[in-house]
Amino acid sequence: MIPSSELILNADGSIYHLHLLPDHISDTILTVGDPGRVAQVSRHFDSVEFEGAHREFVTHVGYYKGKRLTVLSTGMGTDNIDIVMNELDALVNIDFMARAVRPVEEHLNLRIVRLGTSGSLQPDVPVGAVLATEHAVGLDSLMQFYPLVETGLETQVATGLQAALGLPFAPYVVRGDDLLREQLGAGAVVGNTLTCPGFYGPQGRRLRLDVQPADYLDRLRNFRHQSAEGEFRLTNFEMETAGYYALGRLLGHQVLSLNAIVANRTTGEFAANADAVVDAMIERTLQRLVQ
Question: 125 and 261 in contact (C-beta within 8 Å)?
Fold first, then answer.
């Protein structure tokens, strides 16, 4: 039995942070960072059967062309993704009444698609593009606390990037779900996303504070790793994808990150209408989910 201090349930039986019951989610979940973006997705639904909100976690469940979908806001950062992924998994793979993990043969695998915004690192990944993440590279510390097993290529990229940036720690690198990327990312730019533990210094932004090293952005932009699979480079950054991919691998869920490119850090450009870029990504994703 899982103690009440570990599996925390609210008085109504819902999971602690998300405030959801197992019936409140579908097997396909669209996640967004901004709570205000949940309605930007669900306004396309034919009907909405459930709406819930607690802290930054807003949830809408409804139907789009006959398919039941969940939209959930996560807030920013992999610390929030740690909460979201573990609690979504608990909703489908833990018996709340018995406080016990369900038998392996009863485990459900979720499809989780992040619909987020991102900044491009490369001049050939333009503002207005949609990028589907193949590999995510985490500069945060989340995977120091989990037994993530990386492939040979992932370890090589992590070691190479650590050396290139002069980091005192090794990043973690995780490949996302190939089938989901092929289905929902067709026509998008395919790239490798750097997940940063902040918006300013960790993404090389200078306001009143200097960033170390001084050529940080150049090092990221110029990083390359050659392997039998081809050339690996970093294409964009944001703040959640690596947490999704790593926890998805550990928990057995299919995960894809789709990124609306609203800024280009090489050219200094920001989208004149970022909402339009996000809207186009949402509409295309919904259509492909039902094809």
Answer: yes
